[in-house]
Structure to design on (543 residues):
């Protein structure tokens, strides 16, 4: 019997095979930053449908909306950061193709994940009071403080997830994982709000390798939180994954150009999204060379 | 230094928004607000805390777009939300629509269920406006922005905050536009004209405002930037003139 913790390495396809129609899936990262795009691309290739997506939205939301995968979207914003508006998301909202939308304030979104992570039905927050978030989500309730102040607060319900999909910089085979960029975003919170968590990383290293060149505070995920680990170099492309790579701004501009122009999208999709992850990365390399060749 | 351009007048007016705030986190959204916050930090309020717009507090803010220089703190998004709830923050947000009561919309134009134009979403506007001091920046003062009723209330105005029992930390401060400075000292906390920028008349402002703007008897002209401010804007904070793209001369 091995005295080491479980080896959780698997493939992108192994992860997607564990997802089911109708699941509530939380997607880590923020906007167009450190998004688990390799997982998102694999969902696009799969027959999965009717998903509830919970995300600090970026191109993950845009692509899944464009592919008709989303039955319900829970978000506070959808943005590509350097390009403020996400064209696929805009079109989906304007055509009404996402059957149910839950637009929240950012603080409410975090509070909902915290409640889920703490296995509470709700947590109180001031955010949302007086705004149309309360009007457009009529199921939201307020709660009155039982103490002398008697303040009325929003009772933000738990955003409980079936699955969290994340992308970090490094992990060991057991699921301990580090982020090496400036911001952890809320990836640990997504993991604790979810029944199961799958993380892709730029590189899988042995456990000692995780802290050989990074302080222990970089260890964002403990293996207790993680059910599967996938090595996917470039797995966040075209979003940023610093210090491994910056956002691919040229590719993002091409994505936005194609997404805005309905006629151009099929060619973009055929070039980049028709094959598996290796085919995507090869197409991206070839796209990068176009510039290098002038 | 030569005469100040409109964008430089605006930068100084935005800087004035944080001048009396003491030691708190200035959170500017967008280019001119970032320029104004850094200008304020380097002139009227050296205690102001400014970030690179990502996750670092900057001890010595440099040119727009640069995060170089000495770092004095770490402010990832999770800690931004902690500071919002804690209250030591003054945010300056944009506004696609803003009404007489100070309700702001950045979510979408048209009905929420099927918008004519989807924008960003509510972002942090609902929480900001009931937790910490809030100002707005409007680069194009027009009747499209200043409307009688916003389509979707993201940032909360006074009347909505009162109705929701959420006035405890509600603190709308100012609106700076390309034409004028406004505040919320009109009747019942409604929008009031504070000053018009050099070359702009009161009737220019009321004509570009789609609701009944409170106008005091005497409306001063927005102050000119000092020579120190002009030097900092032109030579330190925005040497490539990005401000002219947002507010053309």
């Amino acid at each position: 019997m091995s005295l080491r913790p479980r080896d959780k390495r698997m493939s992108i396809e192994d992860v997607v095979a564990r997802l089911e129609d109708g699941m509530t899936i939380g997607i880590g990262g923020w906007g167009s930053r450190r998004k688990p795009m390799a997982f998102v691309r694999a969902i696009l290739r799969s027959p999965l449908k009717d998903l509830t997506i919970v995300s600090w939205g970026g191109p993950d939301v845009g692509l899944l909306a464009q592919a008709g995968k989303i039955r319900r979207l829970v978000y506070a914003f959808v943005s590509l950061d350097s390009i403020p508006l996400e064209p696929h998301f805009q079109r989906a909202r304007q055509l009404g193709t996402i059957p149910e939308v839950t637009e929240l304030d950012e603080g409410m979104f975090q509070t909902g994940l915290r409640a889920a992570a703490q296995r509470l039905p709700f947590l109180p927050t001031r955010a949302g009071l007086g705004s149309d978030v309360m009007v457009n989500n009529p199921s939201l309730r307020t709660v009155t403080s039982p103490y002398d102040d008697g303040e009325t607060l929003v009772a933000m319900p738990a955003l409980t997830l079936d699955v969290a999909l994340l992308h970090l910089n490094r992990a060991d085979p057991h699921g301990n994982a580090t982020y090496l960029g400036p911001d952890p975003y809320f990836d640990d919170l997504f993991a604790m709000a979810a029944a199961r968590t799958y993380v892709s990383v730029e590189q899988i290293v042995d456990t000692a390798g995780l802290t050989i060149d990074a302080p222990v505070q970089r260890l964002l995920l403990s293996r207790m939180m993680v059910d599967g680990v996938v090595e996917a170099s470039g797995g966040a492309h075209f979003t940023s994954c610093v210090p491994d790579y910056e956002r691919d701004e040229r590719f993002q501009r091409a994505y936005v150009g194609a997404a805005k122009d309905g006629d151009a999208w099929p060619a973009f999709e055929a070039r980049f999204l028709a094959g598996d992850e290796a085919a995507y990365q090869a197409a991206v390399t070839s796209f990068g060379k176009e510039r290098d060749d002038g | 230094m030569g005469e100040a351009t409109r964008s430089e007048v605006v930068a100084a007016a935005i800087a004035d928004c944080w001048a009396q705030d003491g030691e708190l986190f200035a959170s500017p959204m967008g280019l001119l607000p970032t320029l104004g916050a850094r200008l304020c930090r380097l002139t009227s309020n050296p205690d102001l805390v400014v970030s690179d717009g990502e996750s670092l507090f900057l001890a010595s803010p440099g040119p727009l777009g640069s995060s170089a220089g000495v770092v004095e703190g770490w402010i990832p998004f999770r800690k931004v939300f902690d500071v919002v709830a804690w209250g030591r923050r003054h945010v300056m947000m944009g506004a696609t629509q803003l009404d007489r009561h100070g309700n702001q919309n950045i979510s979408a134009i048209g009905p929420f269920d099927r918008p004519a134009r989807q924008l960003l979403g509510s972002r942090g506007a609902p929480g900001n406006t009931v937790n910490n001091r809030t100002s707005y920046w409007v680069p194009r003062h027009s009747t499209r922005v200043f409307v009688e009723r916003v389509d979707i209330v993201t940032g909360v105005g006074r009347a909505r905050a009162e109705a929701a029992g959420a006035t405890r930390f509600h603190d709308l401060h100012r609106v700076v536009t390309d034409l004028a400075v406004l505040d919320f000292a009109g009747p019942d906390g409604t929008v009031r004209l504070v000053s018009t920028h050099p070359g702009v008349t009161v009737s220019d402002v009321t004509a570009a405002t789609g609701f009944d703007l409170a106008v005091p008897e005497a409306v001063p002209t927005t102050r000119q930037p000092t020579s120190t401010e002009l030097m900092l804007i032109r030579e330190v904070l925005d040497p490539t003139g990005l401000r002219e793209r947002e507010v053309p001369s």
